[in-house]
Amino acid sequence: xxxYSDKLKIFAGNSHPALxxxxxxxxxxxxxxxxxxxxxxxxxxxxxxxxxxxxDVFVIQPTSPPVNENIMELLVIVDALRRASARRITAVVxxxxxxxxxxxAKPRDPITAKLMANILTAAGARRLLSIDLHAxxxxxxxxxxxxxxxxxxxxxxxxxxxxxxDLTAVAPDVGSVKRVRSIAETLNIxxxxxxxxxxxxxxxxxxxxxxxxxxxxxxVILFDDIIDTGGTITQAAEALKENGAKKVFxxxxxxxxxxxxxxxxxxxxxxxxxxTDSIPQKHSDGLDNLTVLSLAPLVGEAIDRIFKxxxxxxxx
Length: 316
Known about the structure:
- By secondary structure, this protein is an alpha/beta fold.
- The protein folds into two domains: 8-150 and 296-315, Rossmann fold, CATH 3.40.50; 152-293, Rossmann fold.
- The chain contains eight helices and 14 strands.
- The strands form three sheets. The chain has a seven-stranded mixed beta sheet, sandwiched between helices. Strands 1-4-5-6-7 form a five-stranded parallel beta sheet, sandwiched between helices. Strands 2-3 form a two-stranded antiparallel sheet.
- Helix 7 (261-266) links the parallel strand 12 and strand 13 (272-276).
- Helix 1 crosses helix 8.
- It is globular, with a radius of gyration of 20 Å.
- The protein starts with 7 loop residues before the first strand and ends in a 9-residue tail after the last helix.
């Protein structure tokens, strides 16, 4: 039986109902009835079949593929809850779509991560809870509180249980250095960096390994925030094996696995692929070495602390 008052209410769109159910199970409460539907022309409509007046409402909806469909569902649900007089609406977006468009890399580029922040706030969200935003500064795009939690502690716990010797943490590019350093410091292991360049979107080229002496005869934890088409992670793994790594464990907070990622990963030198369930893994059955870690305890604990007005920073 839930210990929560009727002022905590959790809803979900169609993006990842399994994660929402797991979070509710962790909290000992129920996922409430909200149905996102489509009209004949494809327009999104929502039925909120619960009273939310004065409630603290959490909407669980990763904006993973189909990105625009899931974003629109989230916006319509938030708008419906705002118009139903919810006291506060927190958008729980484990994977925040458009996060990689966070700056002008060349003239006339949009900054779509900021646009997302604007429209989500305009819809009525009063807080954002996410996991490993592609760039931490995206928090500054919002004029509402943002809790950016990290998947690194889940990875650390996983590798502690494996009890492997001779571990080395590797950042697949410069942008991943900070998150990989936290793993290296927590596990008290050495760290190396892959020097990579990206000539165009979704194309990566590995140049060389910085800190090659750490790689020889090591079990390598290769950690990035996203595995999208798999080019960066598979090329990095190949470079690490060429430099003497025993095993390569490719880890990511978000397993997007856009085509041709699964084919690349199957044919790669990677020994195990480890991701969280921030994105539903509906089409990855053929990837036999895939391990999916649950975010439910982490997100559930964050929701509990937000609802009770307790510190969330202890979860970082």
